[in-house]
Amino acid sequence: MRSYGQYCSVAKALDVIGDRWTLLVVRELLLRGPCRYSDLQRGLPGIATNLLAGRVRELEQAGVLVREEAPPPVAATLFRLTPRGEQLQSVLVELARWGAPMMAEPVEDAVFRSRWLEMPVHLFLSDHAPEEPPVAIELRTREEPMTVETAAGEVRVRPGSAEQPDLVLSGEPQLIVGVLAGALALAEARAQGLRCEGDPAALARLQPLA
């Protein structure tokens, strides 16, 4: 791990998390919780095994993550963030907010994982009618489906399908992200290939008001 050699808190932070792939390792642990090395590798397509091992080791030495042995029946080594590592969540959120306008660019050959939809959901969606019955929106992209649902006024997202979704959105990730963020009108997204089944009012209830 190379150092900038500067007595500055920004430089000190970048000494630890500024290398390529490092913050994406943190992203995966924030989204997944404790997970195996193979789970990290699947969530970071394109990273070499030896590079991932090096990043994990550096983050462990810096006190950002720890490894622990899970009891049976899992019986595997799990990696999880420490409390100090969890403090990086606000950093990732602000990076996601800063990068959100670039999500409208064509995906082309970029790899996508449906779990990455959690960031825009947390950034943009809120329940504007918490007194109403809960709603569930299923998002279907190229991978496993994700479900956005309301509970006690909060908006949550989880992997998997909804039992009885109020709305199902299927299509390319940039269309779904654009609609969730309110940057793309539902009618326009449908004209570009987004498939919508169910009640669009469920989406309008969660989208940004302005």
Mean pLDDT: 92
**Residue share in helix:** 25-40%
In spatial order, strands of the major sheet run 5-4-3-6-7
Number of strand segments: 7
The general outline is globular
Question: TL;DR?
Answer:
This protein is of the alpha+beta class and 210 residues long.
Give the key terms.
210 residues; alpha+beta; Nonspecific Lipid-transfer Protein, Chain A; 2 domains; five-stranded mixed sheet
What layout of secondary structure does this protein have?
Blueprint: H1 9-17, H2 22-32, H3 37-43, H4 49-61, E1 65-69, E2 77-81, H5 83-86, H6 89-99, H7 118-124, E3 136-140, E4 146-151, E5 154-159, E6 167-170, H8 173-180, H9 186-191, E7 195-198, H10 200-206
Parallel strand pairs: 3-6
Antiparallel strand pairs: 1-2, 3-4, 4-5, 6-7
What does this structure look like?
By secondary structure, the chain is of the alpha+beta class. The chain has two domains: 79 residues, Orthogonal Bundle (Arc Repressor Mutant, subunit A); 113 residues, Nonspecific Lipid-transfer Protein, Chain A, CATH 3.30.1050. The strands form two sheets. A five-stranded mixed sheet has the order 5-4-3-6-7, with helices on one face. A hairpin with a 7-residue loop joins β1 and β2. The model has no long low-confidence stretch (mean pLDDT 92).
